[in-house]
Amino acid sequence: MLLLGLLLLLAAAALTVVALFLTEAVGLEMGGVDVEPVVVFLAGAVAMLLVALGLMLLRGGTRRGLKHRRERKRLTELSEKLDRVDSERRGEDDSSAS
Prior knowledge:
This protein is mostly helical. It has 2 helices and 2 strands; from the N terminus they run αββα. It has one domain. A two-stranded antiparallel sheet has the order 1-2. The chain starts with a helix and ends with a helix.
């Protein structure tokens, strides 16, 4: 998700750059092709949508990663605690068996 979010942000940036170069006074032309102002507006709207979607995906990926790190840390702590309790029990069993 994180990678997809970054790709969408790059696509939005590319569309924004293209839209900036298309916005000349009233007559919009790119490569000899006339472009209507509505097309420039729609390109900007799509770019904004891609930015929003990219940021949402980045946020989701970051949250998921943080959640997995916290869960992994908790499981490691519980595993260490279980190992300590098991070793203490084995120590008590060995001393009472003698």
